């Protein structure tokens, strides 16, 4: 039997990249999946179509996670469409690198609003619907461990994700709701291609620091998330898992 049969999962920022890979992996394990997107309707529809063509169930739901009203609407849509909510993957995130002298209020708030406030708002809305055995998976980043130059704000947001994970694991543990974080290394996605990371010195430098000798693919992260979403990880909560091929 599929590990997530009968469960409903919400994946934020799932129209492309790591989020899309996670949505498809959860569906492959039997979950009905809500594919959240902020702007790429075509991307979200494509993910839904791929899930449905493989025999799964999915729906695309638009919403800006950094808006309390939208966060609640996304969760409400999941419950309205599928009748329950068992798994929340807080994957929505933005990144922008800048050295200290180039940091602005806009640079700071754009990343914190999505990466940190958005995670809190969606989790707050979802918590009202999550029951015993539910799983929350927060997507952080290896930057919280390797702290690269020119990433002060982005690294701060992802360090906050790890901190929040520990706090919420304690808060929600009495309800038997698990909260864990997955911190990917550099992963080949539309975003890392657009940012110019793929094929650059940045990529070759990352590979040189990675014992397993390559950068990640969305499926490398998705399989770990699927494990954390399933009952196989019932004794894990408050954990920060680094999915980065050993990069330190």
Automatic annotation (TrEMBL):
It comes from the Bacteria. It comes from Dyella ginsengisoli. Belongs to the short-chain dehydrogenases/reductases (SDR) family. InterPro entries: KR_dom, NAD(P)-bd_dom_sf, Sc_DH/Rdtase_CS, SDR_fam. Keywords: Oxidoreductase. PROSITE patterns: ADH_SHORT. Residues 7-189 form the Ketoreductase domain. This is Glucose 1-dehydrogenase. Pfam families: adh_short_C2. The keyword Lyase does not apply.
């Amino acid at each position: 039997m599929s590990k997530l049969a009968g469960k409903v999962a919400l994946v934020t920022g799932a129209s492309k990249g790591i989020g899309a890979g996670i949505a498809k992996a959860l569906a492959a394990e039997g979950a009905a999946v809500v594919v959240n997107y902020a702007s790429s309707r075509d991307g979200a529809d494509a993910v839904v179509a791929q899930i449905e063509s493989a025999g799964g169930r999915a729906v695309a739901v638009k919403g800006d996670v950094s808006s309390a009203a939208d966060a609640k609407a996304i969760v409400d849509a999941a419950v309205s469409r599928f009748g329950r909510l068992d798994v929340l993957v807080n994957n929505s995130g933005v990144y922008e690198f800048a050295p200290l002298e180039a940091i602005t209020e806009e640079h700071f708030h754009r990343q914190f609003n999505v990466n940190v406030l958005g995670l809190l708002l969606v989790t707050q809305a979802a918590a009202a619907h999550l029951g015993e055995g539910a799983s929350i998976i927060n997507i952080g980043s290896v930057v919280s461990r390797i702290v690269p130059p020119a990433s002060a704000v982005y690294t701060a947001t992802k360090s906050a994700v790890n901190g929040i994970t520990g706090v919420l694991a304690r808060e929600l543990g009495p309800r038997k709701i698990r909260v864990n974080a997955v911190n990917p290394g550099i992963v080949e996605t539309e975003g890392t291609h657009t940012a110019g990371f793929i094929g650059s010195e940045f990529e070759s430098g990352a590979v040189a620091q990675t014992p397993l000798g390559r950068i990640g693919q969305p499926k490398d992260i998705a399989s770990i998330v699927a494990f954390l979403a399933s009952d196989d990880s019932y004794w894990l909560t408050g954990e920060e898992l680094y999915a980065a091929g050993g990069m330190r």
